Amino acid sequence: MNEAIVPMLLTLQVASTATLIVVILGVGWAYLFSRGQMWGKEVLDAVFTLPMVLPPTVLGYYLLVVFGRSGSLGRWLEETFGIQLIFTWKGAVVASAVVAFPLVFKAARVALESVDHHLESAARVLGSNECKVFFQVTLPLAWRGILAGTMLAFARAMGEFGATLMIAGSIPGKTQTVSIAIYEAVQAGQDDLANFLVLLTSMVCITVLVASGKLLQRSF
Amino acid sequence: MKRGIVWAVIGVLANVAPVASQELLVSGASSLTNSFRALGAAFERRNPKSKAVFNFSASDVLLRQILEGAPVDVFASADQEAMDKAAQGQVIDRSTRRDFASNRLVLAVPWKSNRILTSMDDLRANEVVRIAIGHPATVPAGRYAKAALEQQGAWGALREKYVFTQNVRQSLDYLARGEVDAGFVYATDAAIMKDRVKIAFEVPGQQAILYPIAVTTVSKQPGAARGFIALVLSRDGQKILKRHGFSMLHPNAAPMP
Fold it and tell me: What is the pLDDT of residues A70-116, one digit of tens each?
């Protein structure tokens, strides 16, 4: 039983942390993108979308090389903050966040760009500062699109496999997420465990989708 | 013009498809990757009509694929356990089963590492944070390592340090990149990364590491499959294995006819 619950709790922890990070970063960047022109915007957009189209093994390799103990960024993080990403659950968070980021960013960019700018201008004329305009006008108008992107990002983060396996490895209780546990159970011929994990994952995903669907309906 | 393009595409596709040659699918343990590619080339030289195609992975992953009906002709595993399971599952022809090579399990460290490890007890040191080891459920190298660690009473004490890998070559890769402090691989694996990985010591007190090979029951070309095994067991085949660091089990075998 523990063989199934521990990976599931770990996966939920990794996926929620990753989703939180990508919502902040994704909405932030999307907001910058929706404010007029900036140099190299479409190139940057393509770079941000890359994790969606690149094979997970390519991402995993990049992450391993960059964030590994011998990687430049990995060494810097370890020496400066004492943070080790490789073979830790934080590494799994980074892998999940990278693959989930485009889903939030793309959805948020469309949502923010489709907000009627006259409403924002009206708020400004009435004396609101940019911060107030964003939280009281722009965000309430765009939040539906952002939430849809967030849901997809969470689901994608839960299912992340290839890149996670490369950077976080498979350490039971620490980095062995549900998708990795299922893979290993199947390879080892532990069909009972695999069946249980597959059903559990399906139920969790359906619950998440139904709950967020309800959330979306209620506000309109 | 359009028709020309269509024919050009068909032409390209036709060239990609196998040209009537018989493909022999050989599933081999990860540690056999380099030596079996060389054996495959030798096999094709002798049988110009045949083509040896390889599928390398952890032995139990290959076993699982064969049990599920993968169209494999020859199965070569890194330990007896995987082959025994194949025999129990009645997916190999028992009469064709032979041991063809032996190997040694070593504890390796990254080349840059300046820690001196001489025994399994040294792995308990605090400076040794991560140890790469094949997943014992699917990777024979992991099973050998686990058995040796259990024999020394160290398996449980090192629990926090293991990074379980999907096959022995993943352990080797982590070692080569310096991402782990130590790892269990075969001597033959360490030898192909001589410039990035060094052997600390040979794992003591282990059982013999013998690689078995057999023809599968689903093979549609058992004749060619037996031919491949005959090559592996022949003097020429054994020499190729020796060149890749394996110990020959049939040093006095006759050359291939």
Answer: 888 888 988 888 888 889 999 999 999 999 999 999 999 999 999 98
Distance (Å, rounded) from C-alpha B98 to C-alpha B231? 12
Question: Which one, of B229, B251, B5, lies nearest residue B98 by Cα?
Answer: B229
Q: What is the mean pLDDT of residues B71-94?
A: 96
- Token pair, residue B206, equals 């282990």
DSSP codes joined into one string, chain B: -HHHHHHHHHHHHHHHS--SPEEEEEEEEGGGHHHHHHHHHHHHHH-TTEEEEEEEE-HHHHHHHHHTT---SEEE-SSHHHHHHHHHTT-B-GGG-EEEEEE-EEEEEETT------SGGGGGSTT---EEEE-TTT-HHHHHHHHHHHHTT-TTTTGGGEEEESSHHHHHHHHHTT-SSEEEEEHHHHHHTTTTEEEEEEPTTPPPEEEEEEEBTT-S-HHHHHHHHHHHHSHHHHHHHHHTTPEES-TTPPPP-
**A70 to chain B, minimum CA–CA distance in Å?**
7
Nearest chain B residue to A68 by CA distance is B179
Give ipTM to 2 decimals.
0.75
In this prediction, what percent of chain A has a pLDDT beyond 70? 98
Which stretch of DSSP H or E encloses residue A29?
Answer: helix A2-34
Picking from A86, A186, A190, the nearest residue to B179 by CB comes out as A86
Cβ-based interface (< 8 Å): residues of B facing A: 58, 60-61, 64, 67, 130, 135, 137-138, 162-166, 174, 177-180
Residue B59 has pLDDT above 50, yes or no: yes
CA B136 to chain A, closest CA, distance in angstroms equals 9
Interface of A with B in 146-205 (CB under 8 A): 165, 169-172, 184, 186-190
pLDDT of residue B168: 95
The predicted pLDDT at position A71 comes to 84
pTM, 2 dp: 0.82
Q: Are B65 and B72 in contact (CB under 8 A)?
A: yes
